[in-house]
Design goal:
The structure holds two protein chains of two kinds. Chain A is mainly beta. Chain A has helices at residues 57-60, 112-115, 132-137, and strands at 4-10, 13-18, 24-27, 41-47, 50-56, 73-79, 82-87, 90-96, 116-122, 125-130. Chain A contains three helices and ten strands; from the N terminus they run βββββαβββαββα. Chain A is globular, with a radius of gyration of 15 Å. Residues 142-148 of chain A have low confidence and may be disordered. By secondary structure, chain B is α/β, with parallel strands linked by helices. Chain B is 37% helix and 26% strand. In chain B, strand 22 (594-597) and strand 23 (600-605) form a beta hairpin. The chains are: A mainly beta, B alpha/beta.
Chain lengths: 148, 795
């Protein structure tokens, strides 16, 4: 069985999300801000009649901001019955996985360590596979840190 | 086979639900052949199906009951209490077994024999063998539908999940329609597109209404089980209670029905256990031996009201106060000041019970507080009214659906938020009527109606910004679940809207500020504020404060009975009052926003046109603002002009009706002075019918006006006027029935196919033979004639 991967850029790196977990890729307008929300939640948006919670994937992983990115593209995923839009720096392609997901035997910094599932070999070279649920959950201290 | 079994279980369950009431009715009147027949049919159907599915135990039970009932039907035996109880016990067992079957469990076999034996006539115990299970052959599985009464409506079973999917599809369709409508407005319009688009809009609105109704269920599903509950309870307690049920056909969201099932059951238990006296006590009190419990449901606007009324001993307010004092909930001085209503409301406090003895039925004082909390959780309310010695009335109000709630939208720092209407106690107009604000350290108190309320700035809570202004732009008084009040300052107040609330992500829920989210018509999300959370995050602590405030200013703050009205001065300077419930908000507009045209007075507020009332006297032309109430009946809005708001008062005592029915419902005495009470129904009935109905909601058909000749004056002068009044125009020779026809006086039409003829004359003064005609430039006269004809048509 071949897994499909969504290749995206995030924090200046190419990363992969499991395509099976992604419902669609959309272009986002400016989301409606949610005062008091954890800092990795950019706000709310709507996809037809459903409400999307917009997650700033970069902030969710504590990545430094990359200059010159627009964050217009977002991957839509459902986690525990709620729809989320993961804002990514860019969305490139959908590729086939050429290997199983293998653990990366190196120390990762920032939020990478928390969200990384492992490494998968593709025709474009190895990619870090990220866990959608972990991106949605955001930094561990998220609940405590209000955008005060 | 599995499908068939599932069908059998569902069918049995449905029949069981309706059967409870039948059995009790049958017991009350054993000669009632119809009830007997329907119970017989049930056991017969179950028996037939059991043979088919190879369920010998169910079959034995139903067969035994069927035999006993067949004897009664054939007149071989009388239905007595023993038989009814035995049949009830068997039906209960069948119900349990069906549930077990559904869950795939094995149901304990104990007791089947005993249940069957209980069916035997009391005086011939040995004859129990007549009811020994006789295993019938599978051929008995005749078509069960033959034995059931013809259903009034065809119905099918659908998974709720499928309905929800269709529902969300319909919501998408509405949003897509709105989007398209916006785009159509932006580009040059093409008439050939507008027509079909209007039709599409109409169809979508209809489909949405129909889909909303699929979520609705008759409250009967909740009520059918109650006669049985009452029978069992009163039997257990040695009381006699008669149930009267009314309004079982009221429809309610099916989730809402589930939510109120337990609270309602609890209330009924209480009524029978604590309310209704034993037969001896009732006789001693000069009442009928049999207690009466009345249950009624009715729809009132977008709320459902369920009344539970008993004619029992009522609530002893003094004893509640004593208990509350003993429990340390209130102090004796407070208790002495409380009104009967307030005393009764103590029953909702945790840890109070009025029962002399604790019984197994109602348990300890846990209950009513939980009941109230559960009802309030879904945006409802519970009210209690009791007259000692005469009985108790308990009213539950719940919104029609769980997912649609009425809300007010407020603006803060340019963003809109929604607040549930049920939490809004009042909207305070901060104008010349100075509201006193006091800054105490970092806190603010607002004095509203002689009462100092803690005041929170929404902007500060959401954005952490300290307000620069000492006075907020707008203030609303919000009520928390425990009835405590606080004031919330916002920048703007927007519309009253019905919002379809959707859950929000757990991370946002965790902020404690929001209760949900919703989409506006243009598809952008709005957050619904959690009023309790706002108060908590704002640092409000309420313990006992409400009562402390009351004891400090007892005279002005006691909660009086009666309906709340807004007291104001009309444009003509008269003192008037209008019910708070219909006042959506107060607006201010520039005088040039008022228009007095042919369609009646109108006002432009925020780019929308509203019918305008209260303008029998024109506003002072030199004023730079005109104040308006925005009145709402939940569907339509109309504006009502006024000079100034006086205060909020309670309507006590009766109204003196006016000589002529009209805008004024009657005269009331408020603060010892007369005030005219405005009749909102009359206002809406008059203004909404006359106003041209919006697209997609035109009430009834469009009236038709026949122009009797091709006279150029008729075509170019009159036609637009008639069209503006809502008429469809047809020519002299066109087929079809016209509601009114218009002809020039000099023209002599042979025969006009119309219900009514308006004749126009050229001269301003009527000539000798032109009685009843209208001068053709008497615009007001023409408009009046059109609307009079429309009114006649509509009535």
């Amino acid at each position: 069985m071949t897994d499909l991967l969504l290749v995206a850029s995030l924090g200046g790196r190419r990363v992969a999300l499991r395509a099976a977990e992604i419902q669609s890729v959309i272009e986002l307008d400016a989301p409606t801000p949610v005062p008091g929300a954890p800092r990795h939640i950019a706000g709310l948006s709507a996809l037809r009649s459903r409400v999307l919670t917009v997650i700033d994937a970069g902030k969710a992983l504590d990545l430094p901001d990359v200059a010159g990115t627009h964050r217009r593209h977002a991957a839509v995923a459902e986690v525990e019955g709620h729809l989320y839009a993961l804002q990514l720096d860019g969305v490139e392609d959908v590729v086939e996985a050429l290997s199983d997901c293998t653990p990366l035997r190196m120390k990762l910094e920032h939020g990478w360590a928390r969200a990384a599932l492992g490494m998968i070999e593709t025709a474009d070279g190895p990619l870090l596979v990220l866990d959608v649920g972990e991106i949605v959950a955001g930094p561990n201290d998220a609940a405590a840190v209000k955008a005060a | 086979m599995d499908d068939l079994l599932a069908e059998f279980i569902a069918e049995s369950r449905e029949m069981l639900e309706t059967l409870g009431g039948e059995i009790v009715a049958w017991e009350a009147d054993p000669a009632d052949r119809v009830r007997l027949d329907s119970i017989f049919r049930f056991v017969h159907t179950v028996k037939g199906n059991c043979g088919f599915f190879d369920l010998p135990r169910l079959e034995a039970l139903s067969h035994a009951a069927e035999d006993a009932l067949a004897d009664v039907r054939a007149g071989r035996r009388q239905a007595d209490a023993g038989l009814v109880s035995a049949v009830l016990a068997i039906i209960d067992r069948i119900s349990d077994m069906v549930e077990a079957l559904d869950g795939g469990e094995i149901f304990s076999e104990d007791g089947d024999e005993r249940l069957i034996a209980a069916l035997a006539p009391a005086d011939e115990d040995e004859a129990a063998e007549i009811a020994i299970p006789v295993v019938a052959s599978g051929s008995v599985a005749a078509n069960p539908s033959l034995h059931r009464p013809a259903p009034a409506q065809r119905s099918i079973r659908l998974p709720v999940e499928l309905l929800d999917r269709v529902m969300s599809g319909v919501s998408d369709m509405v949003l897509a329609r709105n989007d398209l409508a916006r785009r159509l407005r932006e580009v040059p319009t093409d008439a050939s597109i507008e027509g079909p688009f209007e039709r599409l809009s109409g169809i979508i609105a209809e489909v949405r209404d129909a889909m909303t109704r699929t979520r609705m269920q008759r409250i009967e599903t909740l009520f059918v089980a109650l006669p049985r509950l009452v029978r069992d309870l009163s039997g257990e307690l040695g009381k006699q209670v008669m149930v009267d049920i009314d309004g079982a056909d009221v429809e309610l969201d099916r989730e809402m029905i589930e939510t109120i099932r337990d609270p309602l059951t609890h209330i009924i238990r209480n009524a029978i256990d604590h309310g209704i006296e034993s037969p001896a006590a009732r006789l001693a009190a000069g009442k009928r031996e049999i207690g009466l419990l009345t249950l009624s449901a009715r729809q009132s606007g977008n709320q459902i009201m369920i009344d539970v009324v008993d004619d029992g001993r009522g609530i002893d307010g003094q004893r509640l106060v004593d208990k509350a004092v003993a429990a340390g909930l209130i102090d004796a001085a407070d208790g002495a000041r409380m009104s009967q209503r307030e005393r009764c409301d103590l029953i909702f406090e945790a840890g109070l019970s009025t029962a002399e003895e604790i019984t197994a039925i109602s348990g300890r004082g846990v209950g009513m507080d939980v009941v109230r909390a559960n009802i309030e959780r879904v945006g409802g309310a519970v009210e209690l009214d009791s007259i000692p010695g005469q009985g108790t009335r308990l009213t539950i109000r719940v919104p029609l659906t769980l997912s649609i709630i009425p809300a007010l939208t407020v603006g803060i720092a340019g963003q809109r938020f929604a607040i549930p209407r049920s939490a809004v106690e009042e909207i305070v107009y901060i104008g010349k009527d100075a509201i006193e604000f006091s800054r105490l350290g970092s806190a603010t108190l607002a004095k509203v109606r002689d009462r100092r309320l803690p005041c929170l700035w929404l902007e500060q809570i959401l954005h952490g910004m300290t307000p620069e202004r000492a006075r907020p732009a707008r203030l609303m008084v919000l009520r928390l679940a425990g009835c405590e009040l606080f004031a919330l300052a916002v920048d703007e107040l927007h519309d009253h809207e019905e919002l379809v609330v959707k859950p929000i992500a757990p991370a946002l829920m965790a902020t404690g500020l929001y209760a949900g989210t919703t989409l506006t018509d243009d598809g952008s999300p709005i957050l619904l504020l959690d009023v309790g959370g706002i108060a908590r995050i704002g640092g409000l602590t309420f313990e006992g404060q409400d009562r402390a405030a009351r004891s400090a200013e007892p005279a002005s703050t006691a909660v009086p009975a009666g309906e709340e009205v807004m007291l104001f001065t009309g444009l003509d300077g008269k003192r008037r009052a209008i019910r708070m419930a219909v006042v959506g908000r107060i607006d201010e507009v520039a005088p040039d926003a008022l228009q007095f045209g042919a369609v009646g007075p109108r006002v432009v507020i925020d780019d929308r046109l509203f019918p305008l009332a209260g303008v029998a006297t024109l506003p002072d032309p030199t004023a730079d603002k005109v104040r308006l109430f925005r009145l709402t009946d939940g569907r339509h809005e109309i504006a009502y002009a006024l000079r100034e708001v006086i205060d909020i008062r309670n309507l006590e005592g009766g109204l003196v009706p006016p000589a002529v029915p009209g805008e004024i419902e009657g005269l009331a005495l408020i603060d010892g002075e007369p005030a005219e009470v405005v009749d909102p129904h009359w206002l809406f009935a008059r203004n909404i019918r006359e106003g041209a109905a919006g697209p997609g909601e035109s009430a009834g058909r469009q009236p038709v006006c026949r122009l009797v000749s091709d006279d150029p004056w008729l075509q170019s002068f009159l036609r637009p006027l008639a069209e503006a009044a809502g008429y469809r125009i047809i020519g002299a020779t066109d087929a079809g029935q016209a509601d009114i026809a218009i002809a020039m006086e000099d023209a002599e039409p042979a025969e006009v196919a119309a219900a009514e003829l308006i004749r126009l004359r050229a001269a301003p003064e009527p000539g000798p033979e032109s009685a009843g005609s209208v001068y053709r430039y008497d615009r007001e006269g023409l408009v009046a004639a059109f609307s009079a004809a429309r009114r006649r048509l509509a009535s």
